[in-house]
Amino acid sequence: MIDFRHVHHNFNGRPALRDCTFHLDKGEVMFLTGPSGAGKSTLIRLLFADLPLQYGTARIAGFELDKIRPGQIPLLRRKVSFIFQDFQRVLLPQDTVYNNIHLPLRVCGIAKQHADRRIQAVTRHLGLHDKLADPCANLSGGEQQRVAVARAFVTNPQVVLADEPTGNLDPELSVRRLLELFKFFQRYGTTMIIATHNPELLRRHPEGRALRLEQGAITRSNWEGAALFNPMAAAFAPTGKN
Ligand code: ADP
Q1: CA of 190 to the centre of ligand 1 (A)
Q2: Residue whose CB lies within 8 A of the most ligand 1 atoms, among 14, 32, 41, 193, for a mutation test
Q3: Buried b or exposed e, range 1-22, using 16+ CB within 10 angstroms
């Protein structure tokens, strides 16, 4: 589903990614960790075709990013959703929560009745169902982030790319609810890459894979599970007994 080979990316002649290679199959979840400035956002933006691929090859959801034409990018974005760190960038503040979540379904040509069922289900899960008629601008930052999360998943995409999705979450949408959503869609075969600093995400999703970036290079990867990647997470991983 995602194949990234020997990818290198420069900004103004300075490397942001160095010779990065990894592969993810359908339905796999990968956590992308590493300090600020390590290249996590760059990797995710390349996969969303938000930056042009400079060196190496990359495939996502059947698109070859080294050969992609500008006209194909909207098609890629019907299959690949992105949860931005600065989620306000994608929301239409004066429009209602319903319209904001409905927008990608309209673009995909999904019938209203079917779209409404999905919107009801996903907003109920995220605790937004009583806000559907409110303009986004009236919502708290955490609620707006939930709208962005709902919008990313409502199209049932092949891939979800998330950049610090827990960055602004309010207590009403705990990490637990977000992970339930990730796990639900993983069962449906959605592939996910989640860039995060939040050890709680790795601890609560110990079967997810993990990749660590430092100064643009992959310094560690653990294909056996995110919990093993982090000694604290391994020690405190849920055992089912407590
Ligand atoms: P992370 O997401 O891990 O914090 P980034 O991918 O945002 O890291 O950044 C990796 C490196 O690339 C950093 O040194 C950052 O300053 C640089 N960088 C990122 N975006 C740009 C840009 N648009 N122009 C110039 N340099 C950039």
Answers
A1: 27
A2: 41
A3: bbebeebbbeeeeebbbbebeb
